[in-house]
Amino acid sequence: MTLGQKLRYLRSVEGRQRGLGRSLTQIELVEAMRRELGKNLSQSYLSQIENGARPHLTHTTRMLLARFFKVHPGFLVDDPKDFPLNLERDLDSTEGRLDVWFLKGAERFAKDSEVSSALMRIAAQKDTRRAVLLLGSILATPELTEGLWSLVARAPTNSDKPSPAKSKPRTSVRARRPRKVKP
Fold first, then answer.
1. What CATH topology corresponds to 3-84?
2. For the whole model, what pTM was predicted?
């Protein structure tokens, strides 16, 4: 896959993730980068990259695009010929779409660390679809759901641990042994 194909694909995924039901246009991408990152590149430069007229990116451009699309900067290069990965097939699969959806959700809920962590854990599963189906089955069984919630509620969290200032002084449970007196 060429760099241009990857950028077109990332615009497609980003548009769907933003609820547009279509790819982001190059202009929308430039405007979103300016609005969200405070930096941008020109639409004509982006067009040249996508059409192969500029086969290499500057370090600054690569980092900016990687930050916006939340991909590793090393992804933004042409793949070697006969590279086995078919990104469109893999990311367009149910598994790939679920992973992207959960990762974006984790990002959107970054201020709620528990929700963000839970979404990241789901996305990290080897079979995300199966994990979602399992969660759905658990939630469809009220007695199982309540039982699991009670187990989770009993598990201590960092916020449940008393702070040193509020702890009670320790008292010994053992009785003291009498001292031996030398005659």
1. 434 Repressor (Amino-terminal Domain) (1.10.260)
2. 0.48
